[in-house]
């Protein structure tokens, strides 16, 4: 990062670039002896979603227990962001008896989930019966980097 620069003799302007990984407001300021200071308010906003991610307490899933997981959408700076359009996410698993649901009672099975425009996450529930199994969970959606992570079913 720069904290100062020299303006070439005869020049009236200098182009600067600013980058910030997280969202928020900041005020940029320029000072020079003998000149009036200048300020510019900058509001950094989130970008479009580029990938999905799943957060959970653990990659270990207790057999026969309905466990919550959150599927979220992220921009290139890893900010959680809303989808700009209705998005269908296809869910899959290599764990033979893993079922994925959209309700906490694990009664509404969901091989796909519909995420409405403006929503940044979707709550999912996983349930498997057979302890000792391992495998992967996957989520795919058009235009986004897919999510995949390992699961282990414990007693």
Detailed description of the structure:
The model has no long low-confidence stretch (mean pLDDT 90). With 155 residues, the protein is mainly β. Strand 1 and strand 2 form a beta hairpin. 0% of the residues lie in helices and 43% in strands. The strands form three sheets. It has a five-stranded mixed β-sheet with strand order 4-11-10-6-8, with no helix packed on it. It is elongated, with a radius of gyration of 23 Å.
- Give the helix level as a range of percent: under 10%
Number of strands: 11
Largest sheet: 5 strands, mixed
Strand order of the largest sheet: 4-11-10-6-8
Question: In DSSP terms, counting alpha (H) and pi (I) runs of 4 or more, how many helices?
Answer: 0
Distance between the termini: 52 Å
How would you classify the helix and strand content by structural class? mainly beta
Shape: elongated
Radius of gyration: 23 Å
């Amino acid at each position: 990062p720069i904290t100062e620069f020299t303006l070439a003799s005869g020049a009236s302007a200098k182009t600067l670039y600013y980058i910030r990984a997280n969202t928020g407001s900041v005020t940029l300021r320029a000072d020079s002896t003998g000149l009036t200071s200048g300020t510019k308010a900058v509001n950094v906003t989130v970008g479009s979603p580029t990938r999905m991610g799943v957060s959970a307490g653990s990659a270990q899933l207790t057999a026969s227990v309905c466990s919550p997981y959150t599927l979220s959408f992220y921009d290139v700076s890893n900010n959680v962001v809303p989808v700009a359009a209705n998005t269908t996410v296809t869910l899959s698993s290599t764990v033979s008896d893993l079922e994925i649901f959209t309700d906490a009672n694990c009664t509404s099975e969901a091989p796909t989930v519909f995420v409405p425009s403006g929503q940044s996450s979707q709550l999912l529930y996983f349930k498997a019966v057979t302890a000792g199994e391992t495998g992967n969970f996957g989520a795919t959606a058009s235009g986004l980097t897919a999510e995949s992570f390992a699961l282990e079913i414990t007693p």
